[in-house]
Structure prediction request, 438 residues.
Amino acid sequence: MLLNTVFSCFVFYSVLLVLKMYIIAIITGQMRLRKKAFANPEDSLRHGGLDHFRKDPDVERCRRAHRNDMENILPFLFLGAVYSLISPSLSVARCHFLVFFVSRLVHSMAYLCALPAPTRSLAYVVAQVPCVSMAVQVLMVVASYA
Amino acid sequence: MLLNTVFSCFVFYSVLLVLKMYIIAIITGQMRLRKKAFANPEDSLRHGGLDHFRKDPDVERCRRAHRNDMENILPFLFLGAVYSLISPSLSVARCHFLVFFVSRLVHSMAYLCALPAPTRSLAYVVAQVPCVSMAVQVLMVVASYA
Amino acid sequence: MLLNTVFSCFVFYSVLLVLKMYIIAIITGQMRLRKKAFANPEDSLRHGGLDHFRKDPDVERCRRAHRNDMENILPFLFLGAVYSLISPSLSVARCHFLVFFVSRLVHSMAYLCALPAPTRSLAYVVAQVPCVSMAVQVLMVVASYA
Prediction:
């Protein structure tokens, strides 16, 4: 399967996006420590007392960025894999993966840095274009098996 | 792999469910605009001012529907794929996929339209039946490799 | 593909982790019923009235455990699958899967039982080690296809 160059190309960008999600998790944890805002009483007890069992706007921002990644990157891991199996041309496929990859990078930066609207929303919409394109192409191939 | 008819049947319903998740995301965004309730200060500034950086019950309902989809549809994308690899009969497999697909459609409609309980919970439970069935069947095949 | 013993080993632990996630969903539901704290007005109406449409700290704890599973187990379902395709040795691969599996079990127990910090965080970090290791190994194989 890794002899399939389209699939390998997909795996490359996908693994980078998974690592990007891990980085957002790390940033969230660092923000919790810096702002002293913990999601659990047991964590706040370890870091100065129950006062720190509270919400913080910067931590919530990281969590929204992470959740948006789950809503979009995780379905991409599926769509990109099945799209790779319908033998698209490598250049067209790479274009799909690259647009998604770059848009999601921009989305994360726009979210974490609170860039003025509509930067983040635009990045979100652009990233959806290759996803819907892959979904439609896959459906056309497998529709007869429904 | 797409010559495997069970896998192709699985891919068909899975891609439709991913598109269904995208539609819930779009509905959430439209609801935010209509109710003027934004998750980020930068979004609310663009749409009339910081007053609109607030929660709204209808937006939260959309978000709960979306989260429940992530909790259930995303694991199905994995379970259905590995189940397709253990060579089940096509009719039995299609039955698993169809029950899950229809139940999750009903679940989303019951959530977004706030249908009286226990419609939504019933749809959730019915959708879990094929998932647990697939999980058990896969485990029996691969248990010796643990 | 299931003739690939590494992949079958991966599938075994992955399916168990998916079932573990389902169990957290069931615990959340039971906690909602026991604490009479429902996420939707239509559910609370069925269980004694709108007073029960409220948040509860024990229910929120279950939901945080579930969300953390989505953030970590769902990407593992992808990483482990592609890692299985790069032909790692069975013993090394099994070690990756087992460390992740046991750590995530500990993580869930530490979360639901509110064990003193840093038990849960430690389990989280240990589970990330095989994930990052698999990600790096996969990247090295497919980097030339970018």
User: Anything to note?
Assistant: Chain A has a mean pLDDT of 96. Chain A touches chain C at residues 1-2, 5, 8-9, 11-16, 18-19, 21-22, 25, 39-43, 45-47, 66, 70, 74, 77 (CB under 8 Å).
